[in-house]
Amino acid sequence: MRVQTVGGGGAGNFTLAPLNENDRVINTLGGRREGIQEEYSITNRYQLNGFLKYVNNFGEHNVNALLGFEKSGLNFKNLSASREDLLSTSIEQFISTSTDRERSVVNGGENEQQRLSYLGRLNYTYADKYVAEFSFRYDGSFQFSEDNRFGFFPSASLAWNISKEDFFNIPQINTLKLRGSFGQTGDDGTLNNRVAPFQFQNNFVGASSYLFENEFLNGIGPQSVVPNPDITWETHTSFNAGFDISLFNNKLDFTFDIFKNTVKDILLGTTVTVPGSFGASLPATNFGEREFRGYEIALNYRGSIGEFKYAVGANMGYAKDKWIKFPEEEGIFDFQSRIGRPEARRIGYISEGIIRDQATLDALPAGFTQFGRTPQLGEILFRDIRSTDFSEGADGVITAQDVDIISDNAVPRINYGITTDFEWKGITVNALFQGVGAYDKFVNTLNSQNGGVFQVAPRPYFELWTDAWSRENLDGRYPAVEGNFLGHTENGGGVSTFWKRNGAYLRLKNLTIGYNIPSEVLKSVGIERLNLFVNGTNLFVISDFDEFDPEQERLDSYPLFKTFSTGINLTF
Amino acid sequence: MKNLYKILILSIVFGLFYCCEDDLNVDNRNAFDPGATWDDPQLANAYLTNLYADVMPNAWPTGSGATNAGLPADDRTGVMLVNTITEDNHPWAGQFNNQYVNIRNANILLAEIDAGTLDTEVRNAIVGQTLFFRAWSYFNLVRVYGGVPLLLEPQNIDDELNVPRASTLDVFNAILNDLDEAAGLLNGQTFVNDDKGRIGIASILAFKGRVALYMASPLFNSEAPYTNQYWAAALIATETAKTSLENLGFGLAGTYPNVWAISNEGHNEAVLTVKFDDSNRSNGRREHGVRPLEESSNAVGFDVPLWKHVESYTMADGYAPGSSPNYTYDLQTYWGNRDPRFYYNIIFNGAPFELSGKVGRRQYSAVEIEDDRDAFHAGSAFSANRTGFFTAKGVQIELGPSTVEQNEVDWIEIRFAEVLLNFAEAANEMGRTDDALDVLKQIRQRAGIEPGPTNDYGLDGLATVEEVRRAIQDERYIEFLFEGKRFWDLKRWRRLTELDGETETGLLATPKAGIDLTMVGPNDLLPEDFDYEVRPLFSSQPTNIVPDNYYFAPIPLGQLNRNSELEQNVGWGGTFDPEL
Q1: By CA distance, what is A198's nearest residue in B?
Q2: Band of residue B247 on the pLDDT scale cut at 50, 70, 90
């Protein structure tokens, strides 16, 4: 990898307030010089697998067994170097950098990971009617101390293919299969570096340096967090039950699954505080627990009418999570608690809409303020639900205490898709529709990612402000534009139900129309197959959410692109 | 047979991998093994290096952010507004945790080092310095809060963590024990050459003198401020420090400005030094905020002399302005014939101040001449004020405006002058007035004050213990201006409340009528070309509000909530007596 920074400048920090704005950059030496930085890293990985398989049939009894191990590891090394002061910014090579040692920085590091797993599987099938499987993994990770290094994760599943039974005699049903499973897996937190390694042991790490007479010496010291020798695997457990059914000569397939997954021993920071005299902080512990429940349905139908062939498929999944255990401080208020609630919640103010006329203002209680400011026409009015110390009941002012949970569905709970394939005399049409439901989408911006439109100085303004409330636009959809865009919540800058929308949508994700030129025509010119097609993506979307595309992350992020393509497939 | 071979091969293959569970014992290559640290002198010293960095002051005690700065009081601009110290927050609230982090880190070393295989000499030097740091950290706590939880071992998570406060006496005794033990281990160790900047015997003895003086001082003995039992011990500790350091060659280094001259660094007045250089650890002085902005960058307003500083300097003969038999004093000629230290510590309107190597440059504060960033300026906010004065202390005048943050003047945490004045204070209280006066004369002689016909340096009028006490206190004020001592001294003497109701003033200079500013060169005007007027520094004229309970800070509320055994101080709703 090669990273380059060319350029410099940047205002210095003013420790005390300047007398006037123009003083800010006076006599400031630029914080950065132009320079070159290069960085190299090498990762060596290995994986050794050994499996012992056993397969045998005893009449209608079918046994399939496996025993094995997996050993893997990696070694990562990196080296980076940078030098400042280019002779010429047009030559971006080290040759052009200063040889002054003070303008050079070299850095590097190394780390190692090791894992070892033993695993086994026993699969038993009887006459394709009954399937039973048991498997296990015994996983070891370098992340944990010797005593807590290995975790045992068993799985089991059963399936019964009823349609194979002799007593089963319903001609319309071709296949009927019942399934059930239980499974566990372990997570050592290495993925995404979610859990830092070596938390189980005491480490001295690089710390502050100090200058003695002529030497600037490096210091080492204990980590600020004491070790947690008990740190171990997070365990994911899943329960799943379902059935597959095929009807009408396998024209219609239907699959249904219901699941409940739990994650236990999630490593989370503690809220228990120790006396300051302890001189260190407490480590994260395997404390958290979270549950995911949901179901999945899939339906496929294939058929034909004369030369017209068609296939229609639909699938849908629903999932919702909740925290069972989460380290929370004592005495927090119910709405602040995660317990029993999904992670994707929004906490914010409840909007009563824009204050559109003087009558609304006059109806407010005397002395009513929002965040210490007297409400103005065109601002959002919030519901006064709490008084001091988060106690319930109005207190005549809107403060940071008047927040509540305003959504439990800040991510889509329902995801679905529909595929359709048609063919008639060489003409094919394939379409993919995709959509989500049970989703509260908040109009948001980079400055207010959980919801709210908050814009800082650089213009132009967001287009939606053209429909802001003003004395000329009394029906404006958005709050009045605040001259200096301070991001006040009542002017739209904060999370509130004002910006909450139904985020459900249905989108034509992909449409392909093709034509296969009949082979009789082609053979004569020596071509085996010729296919012409046009394709479009993101062709339309149906949604109540109209500030921007419902799949777009924020008001000020990149929009989704529509694409069109056309082509020819030619085979000789 | 065939099956036997199969089984054999399989056993070997699986056996190979079974043996590899040890591979999961991976070295942490981003950390140092605590066990190995105490076998390796370099790693053990690196651990000590971190203690130096965390415990020693990180800069001169100036401006905001310096770990050794006191409150705005005499030494710093700004007044103490109402609620400067509350249970919820005060300037040392965050340091409660920090000091205990340092104490824990010191305790870890002290508890574990003997498990290693270091040479006795190396081990003793490291332990001695570490004991000093533990003492230093507890001292930082006890002078703010009185007694605090006393932990001399690193705690484990299973230990009882709710530790009650030890009595103030117990904490002081623990500090003194650590220092005595450190002195034993570092006996004769002065650390020279590359080790300069380390804690040697001189630092330990000098600091012990400081601690003993605090212990005896009125702060901890309001019932018997000057008659308590601790003065005898203070005299022994301060006199031992003075005598031992003199034997080691410490003394007053040349002229007063020479103490901070780059060319003179490492001189024999620097007992405990925090080193700075121009690359790795620069600008401990925070010079960019000390200079006038015209010759600086990024900040202004640190260490600004106030009018009361100007007033506190004696005349050149050592007598207070107005009572000198040799020199008359008048506001309009206030700069004339003053204590020579005045001319280094205070740069006044029209004084030479050859910043950025500009020969002949003079500093002005008159709004008619100086840029309004640096001219006298009474503002509404504290940060926007200019008093009409600057200081040259620790300023490297040769640096240019853009290199000003490369200042490399060391911070001298303990100067031999302090060792002397500590001794003088104890000697005076213990009836050795002549010894005390002798110290004052040494200090004044070095300062360049005229000895006078009787070699009294203006101190001949002093008769009583109280008069000498006051003279020592006044001498500390002017000798140590901008050295972070004044707030702590006022607290120690229980004189902080004298500031109550006081506001701050600066000096407005106006060119005399008849001077045509268009006709004079940039550095032509002299101080006498101006009229002077003392003016309030803040347009709203706030005053200091210093209630009696400010002598000891309350244990921060956050800390009380975390430790059920912590008692709050008397004066803050609690029952703990922070005095001795």
Answers
A1: B28
A2: very high
Among the listed residues A346, A228, A214, A341, the one whose alpha carbon sits nearest the alpha carbon of residue A280: A228
Q: Which of A198, A278, A282, A330 to mutate to test the interface with B (most CBs of B within 10 A)?
A: A278
3-state secondary structure at position A278: helix
pLDDT (tens digit per residue) in A177-223: 999 999 999 988 877 777 778 888 888 998 999 998 878 999 999 98
Residues contacting residue A421 through CB under 8 Å, at least 6 positions apart: A310, A311, A312, A428, A429, A430
Domain coordinates of chain A in residue numbers?
344-571
- Half-sphere exposure at residue B8, Cβ-oriented, CA atoms within 13 angstroms: 5
Mean pLDDT for the stretch of residues A260-264: 92
ipTM of the shown complex: 0.91
Q: Which residue matches tokens 């008084």?
A: A387
Greater confidence, B404 or A18?
B404
Pairing of strands A505-516, A285-305: unpaired
Helix B416-429, helix B433-447: angle, nearest 10: 150
CATH architecture for residues B37-68+87-187? Alpha Horseshoe (1.25)
Distance CA A495, CA A341 (A): 19
Q: Does B25 touch chain A (CB under 8 A)?
A: yes
The burial of B180, by beta-carbon neighbours within 10 Å (0-12 exposed, 13-18 middle, 19 or more buried), is given as: middle
Residue linked to tokens 């919540």: A489
Predicted local distance difference test score (pLDDT) of residue A401: 84
**Cβ pair A87, A99 in contact under 8 A:** no
Tokens of B355: 């910043």
Mutation for A interface: B26, B32, B33, most A CBs within 10 A: B26
Measured distance CA(B93)–CA(B97) in Å, rounded: 8
Contact predicate A379/A490, CB 8 Å: yes
- The confidence score (pLDDT) of residue A12 equals 28
List the single residue in B25, B266, B563 with the smallest CB-CB distance to A275. B563
Contact A116/A140 with Cβ under 8 angstroms?
yes
Ordered alpha helix ranges (H), A366-475:
none
- pLDDT digits over A459-483, tens only? 457 778 888 888 888 888 888 876 5
Quickly count helices (H) and strands (E) in chain A. Answer: 2, 26
Taking contacts as CB-CB distances below 8 angstroms, the residues of chain B near A203 are 28, 31-34
The H or E element containing residue A296 is strand A285-305
* Chain-chain contact of A140 with B21 (C-beta, under 8 angstroms): yes
- Between chains, do B50 and A210 touch, taking CB under 8 Å as contact? yes
**3-class secondary structure for B144-170?**
HHCCCCCCCCCCCCCCCCCCCCCCHHH
Enter the tokens of residue A273. 């505080």
Amino acid at B75: D
Cα separation, A96 vs A91, whole angstroms: 6
More confident residue, A134 or A370: A134
Q: Which chain B residues in 308-367 lie under 8 Å from chain A, judged by CB atoms?
A: none
Of residues A506, A503, A511, A489, the one with CA closest to residue A552: A503
Domain boundaries, chain B: 37-68+87-187, 287-409+503-536
- For chain A, the distance separating the N- and C-terminal CA atoms, rounded to the nearest angstrom, is 43
**Nearest chain B Cα distance for residue A302, angstroms:** 50
Question: Has residue A9 got a pLDDT over 80?
Answer: no
What DSSP line would sit under A212-265, residue for residue?
-SS-EEEEEEE-SB---TT---EEEEEEEEEEEEEETTTTEEEEEEEEEEEEEE
User: Is the pLDDT score of A5 beyond 80?
Assistant: no
Tell me the pairing of strands B270-274 and A505-516. unpaired
